[in-house]
Amino acid sequence: MQRSSNILFVTTNEDKFKEVSFVLSKIGIVVDWLKDEKEEIQSEDTSEIVSRAGDMMYRKYAVPLIVEDTGLFVRSLRGFPGCFASYAYKTIGIQGLLKLLEGKGREAYFVSSICYVQGSLKKVFTGRLEGRIAEREAGSGGFGFDPVFVPNGMSKTLAELTLEEKCAISHRAKAATLFGEWFKMGNIYEQ
Ligand code: IMP
What we know:
The chain has helices spanning 14-25, 46-61, 85-91, 93-100, 163-169, 171-184; strands at 6-10, 30-34, 65-74, 81-82, 107-118, 121-133, 149-151. It is α/β, with parallel strands linked by helices. The longest helix is centred in the first third of the chain and has 16 residues, at 46-61. Strands 1, 2, 3, 4, 5, 6 and 7 form a seven-stranded mixed beta sheet that branches. Helix 1 packs across helix 6 (171-184), helix 3 crosses helix 4 (93-100) and helix 5 (163-169) packs across helix 6. The radius of gyration is 17 Å and the shape is globular. The relative contact order is 0.18.
């Protein structure tokens, strides 16, 4: 099997594409964008969601590819919105989340899972970013809940960071780095 340093990323989210391609470009992997909605099962586990989405997307395109899924888990809300973060973002939005957190603990974390699929070879990589939900929005960078997520040890939200700064610490960058290192090591030959 020919080893290539290009990889297809199936996502409709341009910000995710930019972050993953930025991180992987540093390890010599070129990411091509396949703009399509990944099919998503309902689960509370990002690794299960990407694993199933990877299968479905591989069945559709029959080429090696990656898919990604993110959850935002707020401890005082017993993990809500978790893997339903996208639905929460579209419905109650950032302001709704801030309202829910009035008088409550603000500790939260992002989890990102990336699944690589090539035939019967499938591997999932996961990264996590611990932090807290700010009292109010700040910053205009990034996307989603970035304007209210403050990583541990920082006083700025993710939306106040540059792409490079976010990618030095983010959940998605950690998952992408784990994938990239594995991919470059040639483990792709495992079958
Ligand atoms: P999904 O992985 O596209 O299902 O993302 C779930 C939700 O979390 C979406 O509404 C995004 O807006 C949000 N989200 C995903 N990744 C990030 C991130 O890196 N920062 C902030 N919000 C994110």
